[in-house]
Amino acid sequence: MQQRDAFIAEIHRAALRDSKIMFLSADLGAPALDRYREECPSQFVHCGISEQNMVNVAVGMALAGKKPYIYAMSPFFLRCFEQLKLAAFHGVPITVVSVGAGLSYVGSGPTHYATEDIACYRTLVNAELYTCSTANQAAAMARKSVDSDHMQIVRLERGELAELYENPKVTDGYTILERPNDQHPYLACGYLVHWLKKRGYNVIDVYRQKPISPLLAIELEQYDYVHSFEEQYGYGGFGAAIIEALSDYGKKTRVFRRTLRDRPIYENGSREELLASAWT
Amino acid sequence: MNPDELRRKCIALLVQADDGHPGSVMSLVEIVAGLDPSHRLIISEGHAAMVVYPLLLERGLITQQDYDDFRKPGALLTMFPHKGIPGIHVSCGSLGNGLGYACGMAYAQRDQQFVCIISEGELYEGSTWEALMFARHYNLTNLRVIVNKNDAITLGRPQDCLDIPWRMLDSFANVEVRQTVKGKGVPAWEGKYQSHYWTRPDAAA
Fold this sequence. Notes:
The complex is a heterodimer. By secondary structure, chain A is α/β, with parallel strands linked by helices. In chain A, 35% of the residues lie in helices and 21% in strands. In chain A, the strands form 2 sheets. In chain A, strands 2-1-3-4-6-5-10 form a 7-stranded mixed sheet, sandwiched between helices. Helix content of chain B is 32%, strand content 11%. The chains are: A alpha/beta, B alpha/beta.
């Protein structure tokens, strides 16, 4: 199952009980959304290909007591970054459901890659930022979002990825995967958790990028260095968040970052092939 | 409150703060004074929205102390009204966003009447047209949109800067264009696009 369908199916279940839930789409679909629209037509709003207005409408709805979810492709949420900033100021329970993290839309080129959004979202006040690595983690995130009273931003991977967790936790901010060796850990989120696991590394799935858990800083304290891998440019991205947290919590652990080189990615190829040439 | 009284109070507030956007504030006085108080008002052009402060005081939503402390450090009332102020439903200030907020509110509360005032300058923002299309498609008859046409943007008259295709608004019901006068009532401000930014009312006209 794709993460988006797992997420929407949970929202669907919640919406049947809670008429305050509204699901807004900027013309992005999903099989699970088709079922939602069928069964909860009064809680679905097609906003047209108008991301800026979708965010503003969601703010208005939230101020009127609704619980809006706004759904669009990840790269296009950057078009309405200012509206997201203003939404965050209002301290309303809006959940951003962003589909296509990193190079998810492989083959479409840099207009369709979400390679700057972690850096942007991390600056939003009173907002939490998540990236899901599995469908059942996305479902758990959806359940958590229903009870939130402030902005949640959830980055979902496109396509199907294997499940990694029996009972995914989404409250701690990170999950340490089973350690195949005694090497230093590799930190990542989303698709790259799978990429690293496949290659036999010790992986920590840092599914929450804002705020980084203080417990993660304490966990990493035992290492003189760790690695971070990301599909973001280096400035302000995933690895930068880890470095800041370690520094803020007074830890001396160094972070060796693998980030995208400072250039657009136009090449053809699989996601793995793109990464091989795009990484620093 | 009659327009003359509202105008006098706005001038006094601006002078007390020795700052603000007098041209836009004064151009809104007549529109705002004439609105039904039971309608929920969203002023998208946040720089002018302080025009409602005298009305908030009159309706007992804020105290005389709040009113007197306008723009003082730590005081409730700011140049751009925010939703922490009783009677202000949403924080505005960045142009082109208020109408979208109003659409979301009007969609969620069909039994409540809403009025959204936008400036003509906001017709340059694509997000305004996104919101107009949304209001039209979802038939938000409980949302009235008033365009404050005071013939001024920061650098001059719109027609001298980048002309606005007014007839495009004909496709939208519930949108009315109100001809107003920038800086009305004060010679130093009246009809002057320069009064978008602060100039003292006793400056040479």
